[in-house]
Amino acid sequence: MHIREPVVQPITVKSLRPTQITVGMREVDEKRKRWREHKKKAEFLGRHLIPVIRGPKDHLYVIDHHHLARALLDEGQKVVVVSMIADLRALDRATFWSYLDNRAWCHPYDQNGARRGFEDIPDSISGLRDDPFRSLAGELRRLGGFSKETVPFSEFLWADFFRCRLKRKAIENDFGGTMEKALKLARSSEASYLPGWCGPVTDEN
């Protein structure tokens, strides 16, 4: 089954399993704030289905919207509505992860940008680690530093680009100032290979 199929019965957020190791916690915090502002929360959930894969032992694996899932979990939301992308219950664990990897449905890279084994992907949304560079990339996209693309995990590609050029402590201690540097880098020819690149920008009128 490769058709988005809404599952109307409630699915508990804590039962969902991630397919990546990290998120940008700053982005999670922003989603938490926006969630609190929504008056019609049931309507919001109905418009933001969490895409999942049904995997071994009938576990549901999130393949997108990890930040939203983590935000809802941290806000105490008990259930969500999911969209079933594929049913892979028949696969053993090793084949399952290999299949997800080949379909770009998982991202087994840690907060340092290093590839890890599939066993290092946490078993719960609460186990996702913080990658400040992912927060930087997410905020940069919202500010128009690069365009939203359908390329899987494009924000992580941008995060890795900045990881080699900016310091983690600079992001943590001066997010705004680091964003200005990131915007200049994003519009430089150095970033031209990345999905959604919008540069270069010149000073010419």
Structural features, described:
The structure is a single chain. With 205 residues, the protein is of the alpha/beta class. It has two domains: 5-130, Conserved hypothetical protein from pyrococcus furiosus pfu- 392566-001, ParB domain (Alpha-Beta Complex); 132-191, Helicase, Ruva Protein, domain 3 (Orthogonal Bundle). The protein has helices spanning 25-37, 41-47, 66-74, 93-102, 132-142, 154-163, 168-173, 175-186; strands at residues 5-12, 22-23, 50-54, 60-62, 79-87, 129-130. The strands form two sheets. The chain has a four-stranded mixed beta sheet with strand order 1-5-3-4. Strands 2-6 form a two-stranded parallel ribbon. A hairpin with a 5-residue loop joins strand 3 and strand 4 (60-62). Helix 5 (132-142) crosses helix 8 (175-186). It is globular and about 45 Å long. The termini are far apart. The mean pLDDT is 92.
The order of strands across the largest sheet is 1-5-3-4
- Given helix and strand content, the structural type is alpha/beta
Radius of gyration based on Cα positions: 18 Å
Helix content: 25-40%
CATH superfamily of the largest domain: Conserved hypothetical protein from pyrococcus furiosus pfu- 392566-001, ParB domain
Mean pLDDT across every amino acid position: 92
User: What is the CATH domain class of the largest domain?
Assistant: Alpha Beta
Q: What shape does the CA trace take?
A: globular
- Uncertain runs with pLDDT below 50, 5 residues or more? none
Approximately how much beta-strand content do the residues carry?
Answer: 5-15%
Major sheet summary line: 4 strands, mixed
Number of helices: 8
